[in-house]
Amino acid sequence: MRVRMISLSEQYNSIRNDIDSAVQKVLSSGNFIMGEVVGLFEREMDNYFGIKEGSCITCASGSDSLLLALMAIGAKEGDEIITTPFTFFATAGAIARLGAKPVFVDIGNDYNIDASKIKEKINSRTIAVITVSLYGNPAQLMEIKRICDENGIILIDDAAQSIGAKIEGKHIANYSHISTYSFFPTKNLGAYGDAGMVVAKDDGIQRKIRMLRIHGAESKYIHSLIGINSRMDTIQAAILKAKLHYLDEWISRRREIAAKYDSELKGVKTPVVLDGHYHVYHQYTIMSAKRDELMDYLKGKGIESQVYYPLPLHLQECFSYLGYKQCDFPFSEAAADKALSIPINEMLTDEQVEYVIDAINGFSLEQ
Ligand SMILES: *Cc1c(COP(=O)(O)O)cnc(C)c1O
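A: This is the predicted complex of the input protein with pyridoxal-5'-phosphate.
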């Protein structure tokens, strides 16, 4: 048996008619940039999140969504932004790209930034905290939003892996000032190319982001800000709008598989899911001291697995100027050594899930 991390062609085949007709409509319309369906998709996302109309603003990628969010709050040289070192590069990359300084705080047992360690890093230069709701598991957004509000700083949640995740029944976009999303093809809601979205609650920030994504133009060829070119292609919006109808069903299947892993995998540790948090399992990640051996063993059985992420950001060469060293963030470093994500996606069959469980339990028994 072969078990893949994700099979995009299999997913496409299951919804082929919806996708083909959505794409055909765009091709016939001839309107490829900021066509009507871009706005329609944005309004459907407002509705999906249960957030004020106009909050969802699409752009060209998840990385750009972080950049646009930070540009909109005026991040610049001399500013500090607190974030986690255990994330995809883009989170801290966007901060540094604007000349601001990433200030890292270690993760807790949910593998997201540890809320109890944030306050001590806030000073007069701090303008924002970027949490990352990693693997589909919401960060401690309520607690961190309270800390941000008390200190007059902005909370941005990098929700690239967590579309559909909730806290106490409400979508996580409702708990931060700004949240950012990626529709990279392998994300839970994936485009067929690059695409992203910023969600901002404040009208003024929304207006800025709408301008910033089209070179800061207020109206055609009249520029009040210096922005970037970061629009979602009409074709991608049409694809995402068609796929959005399946998202909750797909998430339910991921959660069903996760529940099976939780109950049947013997003696494996996974990130804690806090009370009231609705995890959407972009990844199902287990911790193993023999991670690399386990990975090879699974490969031998035809089971794919992936390491997210092997080197925390504070130890990346490009951030050496920040002066961090090994042992600064022990939990992030341990996670980077031990984390292994195993197959979870809506196309997996029960037989495949059982096969993965048996394989991993077999490995544990051999130790
Ligand atoms: C995927 C991802 C991004 C970047 O998204 P792109 O669309 O690939 O630019 C940013 N942050 C996190 C946590 C991600 O997983």
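DSSP finds eleven helices and 14 strands in the chain. The radius of gyration is 21 Å.
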